[in-house]
Amino acid sequence: MPDGDTQVPELAFPLDIPCLKRGAMEGTKPFVAQAEHQAKLGFPGELVPDWKEKALAKMQELAEKNRAFQVYLDICVKCGACTDKCHYFLGTGDPKNMPVARQDLLRSVYRRYFTFAGKHFPWLVGARDLTEEVLNEWYSYYHQCSECRRCSVFCPYGIDTAEITMAAREILDSVGVGQKYSNEIIGKVKDIGNNLGLNPKALRATLEGLEEDIEDDTGVSVRIPLDEKGADILLVTPSADFFAEPHIEGLIGYAKVFHEAGVSWTLSSYASEAANFGLFIGSYENMREISLRIRKAAQDLRVKRIIFGECGHAWRVAYSFLNTLAGPWDFLDQSYPVPQHILEFTWDEIQKGTLTLDPSRNDHIRLTYHDSCNVARASGMGDYPGGQFEIPRNVIRAVCNNFFDMEPDTIREATLCCGGGGGLLTDDLLDLRIKGSAPRMKALQDVTEEHGVTHMAAICAICKTQFGKVMPKYGYEMDAILSVHQLVSNAIILTGQEDADEDEADDA
Amino acid sequence: MSYQVNGHTIEHDEEGYITTLSDWSKELADEIAKTENIDMTSEHWEVVNFLREYYDEYQIAPAVRVLIKAIKKSMGPDKGNNKYMYELFPYGPAKQACKIAGLPKPTGCV
């Protein structure tokens, strides 16, 4: 497996179609899930003997159950508008990573078995038999798509490529070929409550340590409550916020905002995970099971509101599907959005004037902002269209004096993926992740040359981890990626905070 | 997929994490470190020992921040920082040091 150290691609900027490298990523694939991982999700432990029949039956079932999927299979005219929109194609040059070509790996099989022309004249319409070779090709290339949906923005028919990838992964799971990374993690959520496998005792100790850190830094006692019945707000945040850098700095930011806003809030050890990898593998049942943990926690703790922390696809599941998956939420206070994003909450408080902010405390940072794909293209925020682009930027501008956006065709709705989303944030795909991040890194380097940008902020746990890993390959420090609420945390001056000015001098 | 230590065969997964945690020994840690191109110094051992103690208590590896705080206490601020941890364990204190300490790999968006 290439270690990625020498795999940084040379790309032009503005982004251009790369030279084709046929087969460049052939054979790249993540570790396959073991039987024990599969069993917890209700999937066969290994390739079943009648896999071909099962796979085709699953494809048929999905096409019948999900009209959109069938339409996406039927209507592509191969116009090519999507070809150069995929970061993995741009970074690898492998033509099978053109979204249209990657989709056709599955579509060609669909045509063979489910369309008149494909059944009778397969050679005429590029229809293929389903063979073990094809199955392996699916496993490889459908794990070279991060389901970021940038290609869909440019598709004149609005084909949602991520749905094809999810369906392919669902078919693979149903015949016993699952991905270790995603499926092992889903199993941990079911067993323990979060992706990390962080048990309540360890979680409590971690949070108590953070409370000590905040008090050491500021002289103010700020609580990070866990499992407190009767709190008004349940915060559901990715477990990376309890473990990794810079995520944990973001969690400190949420706690400071809640503290200054004077609201009562709590985390839950039972629903200690916002992420929902059920989405990545296209499994409605698993997505639902994970979501129901949030419902149970909200009811057990008798909260009135639910707020989600900085996690991209969690916000998609929450904003777009939570009501279907785990509703109705009629037991919550309906005068607040159900659910609400932490950035909406913070922006409201900034507008109300409850937070004392000193943006000059971020003056050592020249910042740009990476729109995370699932927030940008698959959800909204606030009560107006485009709120998911404006609200994070509003908060950033309130806490940071030096903010510069990247090129318009690389942000907002057209944002480039970090290269690690959709279940690909695993070391066994590091080479792909480095190559796939190249377009975003080019846009970042451009704004560094133009405006001297030193740091980039994001509101997704996956983006943050991915950038921490790949940015050093592109000439940045690993801590050049920040949580948005880390910037809030830096700028906020808590009521009664000691030596705010001295701290500022220390930071500079 | 296995390590060989003192004539014993110790199974590991695709990424080199041992599958039976009780198989761990100091000799094994040296062996794993060798495959990671790490020469174990007393600083490396300080980290590995802390990870194992923490795991004993909490059945999970500590957050990087918790590790750094502990190292800062025992070895001073020069060594209790993220940069130094990455000098010791270039592939990350969480994952690479856990592997050498015989702990499971931290999973999720980390």
UniProtKB/TrEMBL annotation, chain A:
SUPFAM superfamilies: alpha-helical ferredoxin. GO terms for molecular function: 4 iron, 4 sulfur cluster binding; metal ion binding. InterPro entries: 4Fe4S_Fe-S-bd, 4Fe4S_Fe_S_CS, Helical_ferredxn. Residues 67-96 form the 4Fe-4S ferredoxin-type domain. Keywords: 4Fe-4S, Electron transport, Iron, Iron-sulfur, Metal-binding, Transport. It comes from the Bacteria. Signal peptide: none annotated. Gene3D superfamilies: Alpha-helical ferredoxin. NCBIfam families: DsrK. This is (Fe-S)-binding protein.
TrEMBL record, chain B:
GO terms for cellular component: cytoplasm. Its main location: cytoplasm. InterPro entries: DsrC-like_C, DsrC-like_dom_sf, DsrC-like_N, DsrC/TusE. Keywords: Cytoplasm, Transferase. One of its GO terms (molecular function) is sulfur carrier activity. It is found in: Cytoplasm. GO terms for biological process: tRNA wobble position uridine thiolation. Belongs to the DsrC/TusE family. This is TusE/DsrC/DsvC family sulfur relay protein. It comes from Ruegeria sp. PrR005.
